[in-house]
């Protein structure tokens, strides 16, 4: 497994709260808020860019359409 795959799997596990093997839009938003709050300590402008990018990514992935079945599995293949 490549370093990129390991990093992505780690991030998906961090997003999966509560840990149920699925990432919902709510999970994604909570993670984005966590990152924004953490990064604000370093650079508020960059924190907002990261937050916006993460929310745009959740929209691109169509996480809303997975809401009724609980999200998407983070074990999916790249």
Q: Can you summarize this structure?
A:
With 78 residues, the protein is mostly helical. Helix content is 60%, strand content 5%. The longest helix has 18 residues, at 44-61.
Task: Please write out the topology.
Elements: H1 3-15, E1 22-23, H2 25-40, H3 44-61, E2 72-73
Jot down its keywords.
single chain; 78 residues; mainly alpha; two-stranded antiparallel ribbon; 3 helices; globular
Helix/strand class? mainly alpha
Beta-strand content estimate? 5-15%
- Please outline the major beta sheet: 2 strands, antiparallel
Largest beta sheet: what is the strand line-up?
1-2
Overview of the structural elements:
The protein starts with a helix and ends in a 5-residue tail after the last strand. It has three helices and two strands. It is 60% helix and 5% strand. Helix 2 (25-40) packs antiparallel against helix 3. The protein is globular, with a radius of gyration of 13 Å. A two-stranded antiparallel sheet has the order 1-2. It has 78 residues and is mostly helical.
């Amino acid at each position: 497994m490549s370093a990129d795959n390991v990093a992505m799997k780690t991030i998906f596990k961090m997003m999966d709260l509560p840990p149920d093997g699925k990432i919902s839009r709510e999970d994604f938003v909570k993670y984005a808020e966590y990152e924004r709050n953490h990064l604000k300590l370093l650079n508020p402008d960059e924190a907002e860019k990261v937050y916006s990018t993460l929310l745009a990514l959740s929209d691109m992935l169509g996480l809303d359409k997975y809401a009724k079945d609980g999200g998407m599995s983070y074990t999916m293949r790249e």
